Amino acid sequence: MIEVESLYKSFDGVQVLKGVSFKVGPGEVSALIGRSGDGKSVLLKHLAGLLSADRGRVLLDGQDIGSLRGRALLQLRARLGFLFQGGALFDSMTLFDNVAFPLREKSRKNEREIRERVLYELNEVDLIGSENKFPSQVSGGMQKRVALARALIQEPEIMLFDEPTTGLDPLTGQTILKLIDACHRRLRFTGIIVTHEIPRIFTIVDRVALLHDGLIQFEGTPDEIRNSRDPLITEFLEGNR
User: How far apart are CA 238 and CA 162, in angstroms?
Assistant: First the structure.
């Protein structure tokens, strides 16, 4: 479970998060939506332990990530996967080596075991046959699929996705969303997807949270947000069709 309790964060005196609170239940995937600059990626980085809050707490399965240090923090992060907005692939490594990197760095698997796991994940994202190519030799959609395979290679219990379809054409973006859905059905991770893919995202998530003016202004199911008559919500949805 992911729980955010009264989270505050400011940068250079500008308040970005103003007491954010919400929950994602075990095995659920929630879409975090909102206008550009409203702090969605900032919030996601708090969940990954990449930023420290001014006030408030982030609890992952009851553990306050902000209070953990050293080995305890590393152990918690080992249960978490993060798909960065730009993919964050290593340009000097092949697609295979990019996906293998977490296993080589953090596991005790031998090279035979690593190869089996990497090829399995590459097959899940339809990239078998491209494993020896470098990121510069493949399309943006393929790079996102490699990044997804790398994020899932250790079968994380919690997955965070930062704008997984940014920079992709609509068809390729839809393919990435379908892959995320298929991976969730396989691994049953608890996840949050920061996205502008509205309304397409509603077909693959259990819940939706709308971040606006530093606070969660709505939290509910896709049907509930579609049927809402709140002027803020209807204006936001109409502007993203």
Answer: 23
Among candidates 160, 193, 209, which has minimal Cα distance to 22? Answer: 209
At residue 241 the predicted structure's pLDDT band, cuts being 50, 70 and 90, is low
- How far apart CA 173 and CA 178 sit, in angstroms, is 9
DSSP class of 134: -
Q: Can you name the CATH fold of 1-79+158-241?
A: Rossmann fold (3.40.50)
Dihedral sign (CA 232, 233, 235, 240):
positive
Give alpha helix (H) positions in 48-202: 70-77, 95-106, 111-124, 140-152, 170-187
Helices 111-124, 140-152: axis angle to 10 degrees equals 130
CB 190 within 8 A of CB 47: no
Alpha-carbon gap, residue 164 to 211, rounded angstroms: 18
| Model pLDDT for residues 193-235, shown as the tens digit of each residue | 999 888 899 999 999 999 999 999 999 999 999 999 999 898 8
Domain ranges of the chain: 1-79+158-241, 88-155
| 2-47 confidence digits (pLDDT tens) | 999 999 999 999 999 999 999 999 999 999 999 888 899 999 999 9
Answering whether pTM is above 0.70, one says yes
CA pair distance 108, 98, nearest whole angstrom: 17
